[in-house]
């Protein structure tokens, strides 16, 4: 019998090490190395996969491109995030906090798919009775095939018999395979189960949806290599106790990355929000200082969001708190605001928040953050029909951002009257109903705000 050998794998980045160490040499994370046993067997392929269709070699020029119709999930918002729907043979990984609605959303999607195609829902966490109760609560009466099983070999064998178009694995951390002797949920089990399921999906042209647990930091639990195996990775954002859920594509081989879809949780499940800009805007009858609207860009969708700033006298060391924006960029923005705008906040606490729980990762928020900070510090109310966007450089210049015309069109559609934008993004033709205020430097935007508020 061949001797088994061991490796130490980092659960954060998936890199292998020959011996244990307190810190991963690749990603520099501490206490993330786990020992796995690698058994040398006579067959490199699990027996359960040996009777799948054989692979064949093709030439690139000989492959004819076909525009195949994507499989719709019945939810247009989810289809948008996926790039237009599900692709045959694709593997999608969905992660999110407990109770945020992963199983609810997938059950709604496969119920819609099951009207035209055969689907199989495999649950390793809930019994068939529990899933049935949820379906009754959601008003679903489709004949979706259910299976409560954690043994991977049994699942694949059954999938060969029923030949479903879509398979749901809830969740991948509960699956166990005979090819690994590690405990369920360990790095080895998760990696081996995901690899076998992915191979099955590719060779049988089956759509595979895998639900994954997340750590307390919000990252998918298990080895980082899990995200590299799949075709698309979707993350749930938002507070599990709140009403709204945001689904973001952080990886997608068949569509745009960072595309989002917005849902509202109700008694009948997750309901689509077709106009998400409306839910992120304030409904206050009387506007307050420190609040301003910006137009951000989420992949192919312009989105209006409200950004709030609170500047208060510090007692001790001043605090800098950012929610929904990059923490380090706030310190940079305050330094530029002091150097080129003459506004000092070295003795003030500064808090910045993006309303609605959405995360803004682009630099187009710089100008809005600085105007909101000045509004709160000087106690000046910015009119509710003003919007702004633009990147501010270290020398105080307001730099252009991409897709400015789509951002202005979104603001115009929602009735905004004034837009403070970079001069380089000024439209060639005037827009009906909206005044364009082009600025080249930060002080010009601050001056216009001081004279008109």
List keywords for this structure.
453 residues, alpha/beta, Rossmann fold, Ribosomal Protein S5, domain 2, 7-stranded mixed sheet, 11 helices, 25% strand
Can you walk through the features of this model?
The chain is 26% helix and 25% strand. It is an alpha/beta fold. The chain folds into three domains: 1-41; 72-274, P-loop containing nucleotide triphosphate hydrolases (Rossmann fold, 3-Layer(aba) Sandwich); 279-452, Ribosomal Protein S5, domain 2, CATH 3.30.230.10. The strands form four sheets. The protein has a nine-stranded mixed β-sheet, sandwiched between helices. A seven-stranded mixed β-sheet has the order 15-16-14-13-17-20-21. Strands 2-1-3 form a three-stranded antiparallel β-sheet, with no helix packed on it. Strand 15, helix 8 (327-341) and strand 16 form a beta-alpha-beta unit. The longest helix has 18 residues, at 187-204. Residues 40-44 have low confidence and may be disordered.
Helix and strand arrangement:
Elements: E1 5-10, E2 16-17, E3 33-38, H1 76-82, E4 91-95, H2 102-113, E5 119-123, H3 128-138, E6 145-148, H4 152-162, E7 166-170, H5 187-204, E8 207-212, H6 225-229, E9 232-237, E10 244-252, E11 260-266, E12 269-272, H7 276-279, E13 291-298, E14 301-313, E15 320-323, H8 327-341, E16 348-354, H9 366-378, E17 386-388, E18 391-392, E19 398-399, H10 404-413, E20 418-422, E21 435-439, H11 442-452
Parallel strand pairs: 4-8, 4-9, 5-6, 5-7, 7-8, 13-17, 15-16, 17-20, 20-21
Antiparallel strand pairs: 1-2, 1-3, 9-10, 10-11, 11-12, 13-14, 14-16, 18-19
